[in-house]
Specification:
Helix content is 24%, strand content 37%. The protein is α+β, with helices and mostly antiparallel strands. The chain starts with a strand and ends with a strand.
Length: 371
């Protein structure tokens, strides 16, 4: 297992309010670790505390309480310019009067690196981001993606132990952002530097990160691999924020260890797998299931396969999207969103509005949330 590169222990950050308004807790008792060479993402909506946490690691802010360690060295009182980190922001802040090479060399020269050595290292950094051929151009002569890569080269040239990235792709258009996601992930794997990446874009985090910390209200709700976060969310917020999810409220009628029967209204009862064995009959829970994990079949069809749940529903709405068809299906008192991949054009148009169908899913694809 890789060594821990960054560690946060019970970190709290409070900002003083105006007059008697009190303080605001932007980061609330956050603890996690980041491995050496890992691509680690902090994901959450605006105001969740992810950027403040990044700034605490960078040294731009000091924690109200708690500890931050880099390479097992406490960072308390260590100013930003003395920490083994560099930061890339959404606003690249390139010097317009300097060419690309001069922009990348600037930090080295300010650090007292000899000009010949700075020139050599700057060229190496530009080669790393595949921009050495544009070394003499000014920032205004570059595309948004090229400017972003110059900012990366400028950050990497100092050979930081950790590279902090605060929504660096946010200013790019969708197509270029997706291209840069692939490039950035490949670049991180090549250089082997620990990346700590802040984003509010779920797809971006799932695409790029080795592990993701989902944050809300200054707290870390869940940390895991992209598949962990998507497949086994531990709260309704995580399930709702990452991708699209159906939530169906219900009451447990029977429990036996981690197996149970759930009433979801209108006398509809479905078997469920419980997250732990201390849930009791009469307890209110939420059934969470992704739209793409639900299948629609003819009303008369019956799937007796073990673990498959099958209930009667009626189609309320149909949207043909191209890659898939999206259905809104009423099941009892709830409406379920269903996504059917259009791998077969004729089958994708097999159902009509107001048609009664069987709505099916495997128990393993439905998660019980208790909050």
């Amino acid at each position: 297992m890789a060594d821990v590169k960054v560690r946060l222990i019970n970190v709290v950050k409070e900002f003083a309010g105006r007059e008697r308004a009190g303080s605001t807790r932007a980061v609330d008792n956050v603890s996690f670790h980041i491995y050496d060479g890992e691509f680690f993402a902090m994901l959450g909506p605006s105001g969740c505390g992810k950027t403040t946490t990044l700034r605490l690691i960078a040294g731009f802010e000091q924690p109200t309480s708690g500890s931050i360690l880099i390479d097992n060295v406490p960072m308390q009182g260590v100013p930003a310019h003395q920490r083994p980190v560099n930061t890339v922001f959404q606003d690249y802040v390139l010097f317009p009067h300097m060419n690309v090479l001069q922009n990348v060399m600037f930090g080295l020269e300010m650090a007292g690196v000899a000009r010949k050595e700075a020139h050599k290292r700057a060229h190496e950094a530009l080669e790393m981001v595949r921009l050495a051929h544009l070394a003499q151009r000014r920032p205004k002569e570059l595309s948004g993606g090229q400017q972003q890569r110059v900012a990366l080269a400028r950050a990497l040239v100092n050979r930081p132990a950790v590279l902090l990235l605060d929504e660096p792709l946010g200013a790019l258009d969708l197509k270029l952002r997706r291209e840069m996601q692939t490039e950035l992930k490949a670049m991180q794997a090549e250089v082997g530097i620990t990346f700590v990446y802040v984003t509010h874009d779920q797809e971006e985090a799932l695409t790029m990160a080795d592990r993701i910390a989902v944050m809300e209200g200054g707290r870390v709700l869940q940390i895991g691999t992209p598949s962990d976060i998507y497949e086994t969310p531990n709260t309704r917020f995580v399930a709702d924020f990452i991708g699209e999810t159906n939530f169906v409220g219900g009451m447990l009628l029977q429990t036996a260890g981690t197996e149970g029967m759930l009433n979801i209204g209108s006398d509809i009862t479905v078997p469920v797998r419980l997250p732990h064995d201390d849930l009791a009959p009469g307890q209110a829970v939420t059934l969470a299931i992704r739209p793409e994990r639900i299948q629609l079949v003819d009303q008369q069809a019956a799937n007796a396969a073990q673990g498959v749940v099958s209930v009667l529903g009626q189609i309320q709405e149909i949207q043909y999207i191209g890659t898939d068809t999206r259905y809104m299906v009423r099941v009892g008192d709830s409406e379920l969103r269903v996504r059917v991949q259009n791998t077969d054009y004729e089958k994708s148009l097999a159902f009509r509005n107001r048609q009664f169908v069987r709505v099916q899913w495997h128990q393993s694809n439905a998660r019980i949330l208790v909050e």
